[in-house]
Amino acid sequence: MIWRKDEAEAAGEHQAPPARERKDKQMAADNGEVTIVGAGARLEGNVVSAGSLRIDGQVKGQINADGDVTLSPQSQVEADIRAQNVSVAGRFHGNIVVKDRAHLAKGGRIDGNITSKTLVVEEGGVFHGQSIMDAGASSGSRSSGQAGSSSTGSAGTETKEPDQVKV
After folding, report:
1. What is the pLDDT of residues 73-98, one digit of tens each?
2. Distance of alpha carbon 39 from alpha carbon 77, whole angstroms
3. Are 59 and 80 in contact (CB under 8 A)?
C-alpha cells in the first residue's frame, strides 16, 4: 500500500486511519490485494493491479484491475478502465468496461461510455455518455435482471465465467 507521509504521521508511524483501515480490509478480504493512489498523487500512463484499486488522487491513462476500482470523491481520473466492478464518487472522463457492476455515487460524475452487466446511478450523480448493458450476450446465456448477482459463486445452475474477459 502507498500512504502519504502526512497521513502516516497523523495515524502514528505506518498505520492507516481506522475508517480507511476497515474499508481497506474489507476490499482486501474480497479481492486479495488493494492498491491505493493517494490524494496527493498524480499518475500518467498505464496502471495495472492484480487486485483492487482505490484512487484518491489524479490518474491519466489506462487502468486495468483484476478486482474492483473505486474512485473516491476527491479523485480526478481521465482514463479507460477495465475491471471487475467500478464505483465512481469523483470526476471521471473516459470509458469503463466492467465484468459485473458499475456504480455512480451521489456527487460523482462520469463523462464517457460504460459497458457493464449492472449499472447503478445514485440520485445526484451525473452521467454523460452511453450505457451498454452486456449480460452475457457473447455466449448466448440468459440475461439476468438481478442487480446484485455475483458471478464468482460455484454453486448454482449457471456459471458466468465464459462471459468474462480476462483483463
Report:
1. 999 999 999 999 999 999 999 999 99
2. 12
3. no
